[in-house]
Amino acid sequence: MILGIGVDVVDIARFEASLERTPRLLERLFTETERPLPVHSLAARFAAKEAVAKALGAPKGLGHLEAEVRCDELGKPELHITGKAAEVAHGLGVKRWHVSLSHDAGVAVAYVIAEG
């Protein structure tokens, strides 16, 4: 059963400008594993982090570092949730996450589904 759906869209050039203007933003938004990725991948991952919050009902107190996007051996993105996000997900009965990332024409998008 689907417990929550989230989607977010990020303008890649605007996102890149924010990262250049505020270098510490990289550390506040992304895990150590995510930081070395190219800006279009970071924008898609930021969209996924925002989509996770929406799928959980946008509870207060979630941190961007609590949602990490990793890729499996075939390149499929997977969500790893920790902290308050994991607590909220557990409370809602989330057993599995589905995530889809894409970027084209200067835009990155992410869809997240929380399944129970």
UniProtKB/TrEMBL annotation:
It is found in: Cytoplasm. Gene3D superfamilies: 4'-phosphopantetheinyl transferase domain (3.90.470.20). One of its GO terms (biological process) is fatty acid biosynthetic process. GO terms for cellular component: cytoplasm. Keywords: Cytoplasm, Fatty acid biosynthesis, Fatty acid metabolism, Lipid biosynthesis, Lipid metabolism, Magnesium, Metal-binding, Transferase. Residues 4-91 form the 4'-phosphopantetheinyl transferase domain. It catalyses: apo-[ACP] + CoA = holo-[ACP] + adenosine 3',5'-bisphosphate + H(+). Belongs to the P-Pant transferase superfamily. AcpS family. This is Holo-[acyl-carrier-protein] synthase. It comes from Nonomuraea zeae. The lineage of its organism: Bacteria, Bacillati, Actinomycetota, Actinomycetes, Streptosporangiales.
